[in-house]
């Protein structure tokens, strides 16, 4: 993933007392600002976001989440504001978000409501406080800037409580949930025409965003193929990197190199598949903890129960009760 860092953006950070050099150092990311572009792996990105969660005040978070302050540096926000309305803007954000960050935006329309959920693309960990609020506030800022109206969500679900300053911007108190997040809007609000609509700007930027999107699809396609083979091998109890590589028709070294280029590791992807399988099997109440542990390739039940608690923040029984 590439983040473009130019002098204007650094000046914006300095103006608001944000030292990018110190933030990168805290996240243990090599300082390559002299190149005006930093290349981060997905894990480095998440670590950087964790540092921002600890170091930034909510006032600074609000400043950096206002598209009128930094939209000039991000083409993806240009194309969102160039949309016909809020619904189209959010759909464009969902399509192109991975060009700038390993974050998935899920958009669903249910009758007269539009729901937006945010996740990291691996679905292994929750987004940090900074990352979640930043993404939600940017969406809200785009809607308000585009329409010129104070759009307020119908519902906000968050694992993090709001400070008074963040609550004032959202205009609504959140429902607290340990693992879930949600922004829900009235469809009518998202159909309001954007004052910032600009088809010429959209036609100018769209080809480049599509090109960048294609560039990052290759690693994604590889990861999808990897996940399919891992899912087939896990129940056998022999889901080693050597076996997976053989199934994919490549060497272990090539597999590791491809994973590194995608900003991930075999262990991370194995855990991602195990988590998805665990959540799927959890819905079958006839399966015991021992049986699910066996199906996921764990030699010890205790290892599975620890992993499940790490993934969900609760035991299997607690998770199942939540489903009922």
Automatic annotation (TrEMBL):
Alphabetized PROSITE patterns for the sequence: HTH_ARAC_FAMILY_2
Protein name, UniProt field: Transcriptional regulator
UniProtKB keywords: DNA-binding, Transcription, Transcription regulation
GO CC terms: cytosol
Pfam families assigned to the protein according to its UniProt record, in alphabetical order: Arabinose_bd, HTH_18
Keyword DNA-binding: yes
Keyword Repressor listed: no
Domain HTH araC/xylS-type: 224-322
Alphabetized InterPro entries for the sequence: AraC-type_N, Homeodomain-like_sf, HTH_AraC
UniProt GO molecular function: DNA-binding transcription factor activity; transcription cis-regulatory region binding
């Amino acid at each position: 993933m590439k983040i473009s860092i130019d002098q204007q953006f650094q000046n914006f950070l300095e103006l608001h007392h944000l030292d990018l050099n110190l933030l990168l150092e805290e996240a243990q990311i090599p300082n390559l600002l002299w190149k005006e572009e930093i290349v981060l792996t997905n894990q480095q990105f998440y670590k950087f976001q964790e540092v921002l969660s600890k170091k930034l005040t909510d006032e600074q978070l609000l400043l950096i989440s206002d598209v009128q302050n930094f939209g000039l540096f991000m083409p993806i926000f240009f194309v969102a504001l160039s949309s016909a309305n809020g619904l189209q803007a959010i759909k464009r954000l969902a399509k192109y978000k991975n060009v700038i960050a390993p974050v998935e935006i899920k958009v669903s329309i249910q009758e007269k409501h539009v729901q937006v959920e945010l996740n990291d693309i691996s679905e292994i960990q929750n987004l940090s406080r900074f990352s979640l609020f930043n993404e939600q506030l940017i969406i809200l800022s785009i809607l308000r800037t585009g329409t010129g109206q104070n759009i307020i969500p119908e519902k906000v679900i968050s694992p993090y409580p709001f400070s008074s300053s963040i609550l004032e911007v959202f205009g609504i108190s959140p429902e607290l949930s340990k693992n879930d997040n949600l922004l829900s809007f009235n469809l009518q609000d998202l159909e309001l025409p954007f004052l910032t609509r600009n088809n010429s700007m959209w036609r100018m930027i769209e080809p480049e965003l599509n090109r960048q999107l294609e560039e990052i699809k290759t690693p994604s396609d590889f990861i999808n193929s990897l996940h399919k083979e891992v899912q087939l091998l896990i129940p056998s109890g022999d889901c080693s990197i050597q076996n997976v590589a053989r199934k994919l028709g490549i060497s272990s070294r090539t597999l590791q190199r491809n994973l590194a280029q995608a900003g991930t590791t075999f262990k991370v992807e194995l855990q991602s598949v195990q988590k998805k399988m665990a959540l799927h099997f959890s819905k079958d109440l006839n399966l015991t903890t021992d049986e699910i542990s066996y199906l996921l390739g764990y030699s010890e039940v205790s290892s599975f129960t620890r992993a499940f608690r790490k993934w969900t923040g609760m035991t299997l029984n607690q998770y199942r009760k939540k489903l009922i």
